[in-house]
Amino acid sequence: MANAGFFRRIFSLVYDSLAIIGIIFSLTLLLVLLNGGSPKTGEVADYMQLIITVFSGPVFYTYFWLANDGQTLGMQAWKIKLISKEKLSVRICLLRCAFSTFSFLFFGIGYLYILVNRDNKSLADLATNTVICKIN
User: Fold this and answer.
1) CB < 8 Å & 24+ apart, contacts of 66-71
2) pLDDT for 68-82, tens place per residue?
3) Phi and psi angles of residue 68, each rounded to the nearest 5 degrees, phi first
């Protein structure tokens, strides 16, 4: 299997991001309804909102990668798949999410690395010994 290129990965990421934003909005709406309004600074609901925002992405990716044979919704649409040299685990998935987040925050350097790497690997791929491959 050939490694997925830069644009296929980015378009998959955009697709998944829209799903994650929908999850965050839905959980936030539920939180507002249960709280009787938006949370005040320092309340428990305020911290729950932070938890929802921070952990929705990693939980989404980890769930789909483990339960759906290495594919998220965006990866299914763009026909790519996460493959690990060792058995895919929660640790690998969360480590990959962390590297991807930091790569994105530092001007996308981890993703831009795909453009110069001859094997089309991102920094998250290298750090977790995984690859994103095209499938038929």
Assistant:
1) 66/90, 66/93
2) 999 999 999 999 999
3) -120, 35
